[in-house]
């Protein structure tokens, strides 16, 4: 059989190269990058990094000095900005405490929620647009010359004014609550800074002031009270504001401003502020003036229309004052110098600082001697401070001074020397059973500083303590441990002069301050009721039986 002729073997045609079509694209990309700087340089309106990002180009910015300022993701900057709570847009020299105060505390385990951070940045933009001194503020002032509010306005305002004679601790708690209310209702927060508060705090908002300028058209703000003509309660009673159909109320039918009275003596019509229908109507009043000596934040959680926003801002509800207080309150450079000088000279060298804040109230049935015994019983039983050995003198501790971890006790009170000197004498005369030395500190300068300046210094020093022991009902104590982010030991109030409190103290399960005088009217049930039983996270306080407090 003849064989078929053999065909020469042919290789298959080569596959297209994987890179053959890529090099023109790569060249195009390189040319785009090369042209980008020229485009930026020649552009009259130079795009921002966000504009460039929207073009689909990824831009990495390198610090010219690698050994210089660490990136924002570094632990140092995270601490300085408190997890994003603070904006970096305020220069350090303008307010030293803003970025340095947190360095005196252990890092907070409580991070602000991303939603809270976002809301604060949006508020700052609103304040820049509408705050005192802006064109919108000047236009809004003119509304006060009218008898009525206006609809569709660009900016609405909340003016906070202090109660005469109230302690700085009361005022700070009230301001924190008022700012949260402004945040919830998209109002611009403006503070009436009286002479006794001048120079205490830095401006908290970038590129805008929170201080109410002179010449405000509503005069005698500090004289406003429960019976004022423009108080919300009186406006309701006179039928100048009606809440029968909240959604149907027009701004033009409402007064140009209303005064909200939230002091401890407020009555039921004032308390309707915490009702949903009333908030719907108040939202249409252009200017609100608020005066309070209470931490009324728990009451805001009882308003249904605020529930979702508050839940997103504060998933851990017992951190409200911790975050708002650290955002809002920064001692001025003058006050900060006093704070940091004392902390550096006396507190920084100890491994553990224990704060004892003592407040005695008018009409208290407890003698100072009994109260001191209660403090000692609390700190020894709860192992906060070591017990003394009555059979050993303090010289037995001297050998341990160089090697034993040391503790310091910072005692602050309206009568600091009385309690501090007794505690100092006790540890000076006797050794401790553990051999651990204890130093007793008390801030000085009571005669040299104005009362509010002294109070602010002591509250911030207390906030740098690792453990907090405070008198029940003390708003000064609330501020100190709230800024620190620690759950305090509360010194309970004995029932009479002779009987000791049993137990002498308890540790709270929430670091939130107490709302001492909450409303008695239950808006949901439309009758008086126990508001400590309405929501799981709003319950009664450990130190004030009728008070309300936020719990996680």
From TrEMBL:
Q: Give the principal location in a single coarse category.
A: Golgi
Could you name the Gene Ontology cellular component terms for this entry? Answer: Golgi cisterna membrane
InterPro entries attached to this UniProt entry? XG_FTase (IPR004938)
Q: Which family does it belong to?
A: Belongs to the glycosyltransferase 37 family.
Classify the protein's membrane topology as the record does: Single-pass type II membrane protein
Q: Which GO terms describe its biological process?
A: cell wall biogenesis; cell wall organization; xyloglucan biosynthetic process
Q: What is its EC class?
A: transferase
Return the annotated region ranges for Disordered. Answer: 61-82
Glycoprotein as UniProt keyword = yes
Q: Where in the cell is it found?
A: Golgi apparatus, Golgi stack membrane
Q: Does the keyword Disulfide bond apply?
A: no
Matching entries from Pfam families are given as:
XG_FTase
Q: What does this protein do?
A: May be involved in cell wall biosynthesis.
Q: What is its EC number?
A: 2.4.1.-
Q: Where is the signal peptide?
A: none
Q: Which keywords does UniProt give here?
A: Cell wall biogenesis/degradation, Glycoprotein, Glycosyltransferase, Golgi apparatus, Transferase
For this protein, what is any one GO molecular function term? galactoside 2-alpha-L-fucosyltransferase activity
Q: What is this protein called?
A: Fucosyltransferase
